[in-house]
């Protein structure tokens, strides 16, 4: 689980800082959410500052570092640079235990004290910061739909016969 609960009592007015730089935290989350992701050259880290407010906490943080993911077209391992600042307000839960949007609350009350799930919060920011389709290069040619060869390494010799690749894709769909 990416869950990591931190106590919110006795927060100083200038806030308290939490950091998520333990590779084990990220490894575990990638495995759990089945994301083909691994640590890049610049290790991934997040800092999170939690500031007390009357009705919740104000959160500001930054996610930086690099991860390796397969290119969406050719599956080559691709390094992705992340630098994502984030800010969020997290309200204290109401009696029903949900927040205003009905989302799973990131703050819970335990033994009369509030706790924040900082782990899941940082994980959500990581997912938001990822590119929708990671690409090794904007001009990546991808894999041949017929033989699976990496077309970045040159033409594979398949006879395309002038067939529209979109039609070819449809043909493959029908076969399967
Ligand atoms: Zn690629
Ligand atoms: Zn081919």
Describe the structure in brief.
The chain is of the alpha+beta class. It contains 3 helices and 8 strands. One zinc ion binds next to loops.
Report on the architecture of this protein.
With 176 residues, the chain is α+β, with helices and mostly antiparallel strands. The chain folds into 2 domains: 5-139, no CATH class; 141-176, no CATH class. The chain has helices at 23-32, 118-129, 165-175; strands at residues 5-7, 16-20, 38-39, 45-52, 56-70, 77-91, 107-110, 113-117. Strands 2, 3, 4, 5 and 6 form a 5-stranded antiparallel beta sheet that branches. The protein has a 3-stranded antiparallel beta sheet with strand order 1-8-7. A hairpin with a 3-residue loop joins strand 4 and strand 5. The radius of gyration is 22 Å and the shape is elongated. 18% of the residues are buried. The mean pLDDT is 87. Bound molecules: zinc ion (ZN) (2 copies). One zinc ion is lined by residues 71, 73-74, 76, 135-136, 140.
Small molecules held by this entry: zinc ion
Number of helices: 3
Radius of gyration: 22 Å
Tally of separate domains: 2
Oligomer: single chain
Number of strands: 8
Run of helices and strands: EEHEEEEEEHH
Principal-axis shape: elongated
Structural class: alpha+beta
Q: Sketch the major β-sheet.
A: 5 strands, antiparallel
Describe how the helices and strands are arranged:
Blueprint: E1 5-7, E2 16-20, H1 23-32, E3 38-39, E4 45-52, E5 56-70, E6 77-91, E7 107-110, E8 113-117, H2 118-129, H3 165-175
Antiparallel strand pairs: 1-8, 2-4, 3-5, 4-5, 5-6, 7-8
One zinc ion binds next to loops.
